[in-house]
Write a structure and sequence with these properties.
Protein name (chain B): Molybdopterin-dependent oxidoreductase
GO cellular component, one term (chain A): plasma membrane
Number of helices of chain B: 7
Strand content of chain B: 15-25%
Number of helices of chain A: 9
Shape of chain A: globular
Distance between the termini of chain A: 31 Å
CATH topology of the domain at 86-252 in chain B: Sulfite Oxidase, Chain A, domain 2
Helix content of chain B: 25-40%
Shape of chain B: globular
Order of helices and strands of chain A: HHHHHHHHH
CATH class of the domain at 86-252 in chain B: Alpha Beta
Largest sheet of chain A: none
Number of strands of chain A: 0
Largest interface: A-B, 35 and 43 residues
Number of strands of chain B: 10
Distance between the termini of chain B: 34 Å
InterPro entries (chain B): OxRdtase_Mopterin-bd_dom, OxRdtase_Mopterin-bd_sf, TAT_signal
CATH superfamily of the domain at 86-252 in chain B: Oxidoreductase, molybdopterin-binding domain
Structural class of chain A: mainly alpha
Strand order of the largest sheet of chain B: 2-1-10-5-6
Structural class of chain B: alpha+beta
Oligomer: heterodimer
Strand content of chain A: under 5%
Helix content of chain A: over 70%
Keywords (chain A): Cell membrane, Electron transport, Heme, Iron, Membrane, Metal-binding, Transmembrane, Transmembrane helix, Transport
CATH architecture of the domain at 86-252 in chain B: Alpha-Beta Complex
Domain Oxidoreductase molybdopterin-binding (chain B): 104-249
Number of domains of chain A: 2
Largest sheet of chain B: 5 strands, mixed
Chain lengths: 209, 260
Amino acid sequence: MSSLTVTDEQVSATPAKVIQPAWVRVMHWTNAVAMVLMILSGWQIYNASPLFGFSFPREYTLGGWLGGGLLWHFAAMWLLMINGLAYLVTGFATGRFRKKLLPITPSGVLHDVRAALTFKLGHDDLSVYNYVQRTLYAGIILVGVLIVLSGLGMWKPVQLHWLVTLFGDYPTARYVHFFCMAAICAFLVVHVLLALLVPKSLRAMIIGR
Amino acid sequence: MAKRSFLIPGVDKRLLIKDSIKTMPDVTRRRFIAGGASLGALTLLTGCDVVDSSSADALLAKISKFNDAVQDFIFNPDALAPTFAESAITKPFPFNAYYDLDDAPEVNGDDWKLEVRGLVDNKKSWTLPELYKLPQVTQITRHICVEGWSAIGSWTGTPLRDFLKLIGADTRAKYVWFQCADKDGYNSPLDMRTALHPQTQMTFKYAGEILPRAYGFPMKIRVPTKLGFKNPKYVVSMEVTNDYKGGYWEDQGYNSFSGS
């Protein structure tokens, strides 16, 4: 059995350091599922009383009808909120947010946006986020908080009236909720596109290295 | 989806589908409704059929029941819905139902009686003149529809809790269940704590005028702490009961508590 004992040498020879710890990966993909469920059921609810002069195509909505969309929305919200809260707490507690997302300086952002647009932005070290990434990730976390708060306010405008007051009134909270969704969809397009352009970053979010 | 060419001119497609679903046996009906949920896009994303309809249905129904309990838990019987100035009233206040205004019940106020049933001491029926004699209060509150739109209106009537006291209702019972004159028999239950909320009202007037047909003549129940579909119109009877008797929309899947 001694052949099975692990020596110090073997341990130190482990490959590439972990870029995305397990908790980040699990919560990232849980959030991805929750977000897709929330967006598609949200479109179903939107279609029942559109805020603007358009509706979302039926085949991209969840639930079959308003009642079904609401069932999905108020089920997936628990996944989104519990996972999101765990992510925020862990992100602050471990110092990951501070280490990965800060500082964000205007000059740094400008420099990296310019570099990105001229395809000169390197991704040699995946464990360090460039200023474009920092801005997008910090921004989407804030939007995530905002969409949950405005959603809770719409769900309970009497019991949580202070939340609605935060946004102004009920109709305003509804608009905030919609524009947060639009921002998340825009982020999704950019985020997925960039992940596909830099496949090793996608790999890191799946297997950690 | 039905193709346009199969449609009967002048027949509302959505209502037709709804009516056909009703004629299906229960299991088929549930699967049909959930069928709308088995979604190509999601299937593509995950590579599996997310919605095996019957199990997804059962899970969603369970979570909705759990959400009832959560909402009951956070319901504060003393928290009042915001009230507004007259200038904030939405004009015109929208008519809203699952049918057109032409199909709204035309109740004859002279013949109409409010029937009282269940766990109450005094089961006498009430005529409109008798009800009009009860003390009335006015509220200007926001009506929020399950669809997301909202409108501010002015409703006048008797607080339901005063009426329940007057008829000697057992307020330890779980529900007050309302039945209405709408076609297809609208009905809806109110949990007792909401029924006893100070702003829950038996409404006889809108904007100071006798409740018009569009808004539920002769009586609606105004519940500013619930979504619109929990505000029954054209009410013909109320029953104080411990049994959950379902409701028109609740039976089709709207969350039963639907508090706001």
